[in-house]
Amino acid sequence: MRALTFQRVKFTLGLPVLKRAIQEKAEKTKNFLSRSLVIGEVLSMADMATAVKCGIIYWLFGGAIRNLGSPGHVTKWLQPLQEQKYTGIFAMTERGHGSNVRGIQTEATFDPSTQEFVIHTPCEDAEKMYIGNALHGDFAAVFAQLVVGGRSQGPHCFIVPVRDENGSLYPGVTAVDMMYKEGLQGVDNGILTFDKVRIPRDNLLDKFGSVTPDGQYHSPIKNKSARFNAMLAALTPSRLAVVFQALGAMKLGLTIAIRYSHSRRQFGPKDKEEVKIIEHQTQSFRLMPHLATTLALTFTSRYAGVLLDEDVFQGKELADSRPLQALVAGLKAYSTWENVRCLQDCRECAGGMGYMMENQISGLKCDTDVFVTFEGDNVVLLQVVARELLAQYTKQWEERPLASLLRSWAASEGDSLRTSFLAFNVDTVGDLTFLLKAVAFRERVLQRSLVARIYYKVVTKKEAFFGAWNACLHHVASLSLAHVHRVTLEQFSLAVRRCPDQEDQALLMKFCLLYGTTLVFQERAWYLEHKYLTPAASTRIRRQLLNLCELVKDDALRVISAFNIPHTHLHAPIAGITDPLATGAFHPAPQQPPAQERARPRRPKPGAKL
Question: Of 62, 94, 382, 570, which is least surrounded by CB within 10 A?
Answer without folding.
Answer: 570
